[in-house]
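Worked example

This section walks through a single chain of length 186. The input is the sequence exactly as stored; nothing has been trimmed or padded.
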Amino acid sequence: MTAPTVQVGAATPDTLAELHRDLAEHDQIAGRRSTKAEKRIARLERDLTDPRRRAATYRLVATQSTLPHAVARLLCALTLEFGARLENCFPGRKRMRQRLGAWAQRYSTNQLTKWVSVAVKLGWAERVPLTQAEDGELLDAGASGRFISATGIAFHVPAGVIAPGHPGVPGPRVWSRRIYGKRGTA
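Given that input, the structure is written out below as tokens.
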């Protein structure tokens, strides 16, 4: 049994023109796709730097990532309950379990801590030991200050999550209780 042979005839000007049209159309579609992807990346970066949109964008990126479901749910719940601006999240283990709702109370505090550890290993969070300055402001432990037993959680978006080759977005390291309120117009 022999394989069928295909005979190629000489290219006519009509087939060449059609091939050029198809290639030009393909280039336009690819250009539109890359422009759309660039706009999406720019929008996500902008939203992750804006204090008012940071937590919502972080939750969106976390839920659309390859994180295990329970870890993504824990990170989203932490941003909703403790760090609405993604700036100050330092819950204790027992307090975290109490305030995160019924779904978190089904699990032990050790399990919740393990999920935070998984997020740290995957680059989605960082544990930061905190100290307290003389005026009461919380600082990173490397700074001078009185030691207190608190560990803050800094939220990050790891490299390659927003787009392949993207360097990632480090979270802010502000440990204040600042609230962004709307200013009234005078």
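What to look for: The chain has six helices and three strands.
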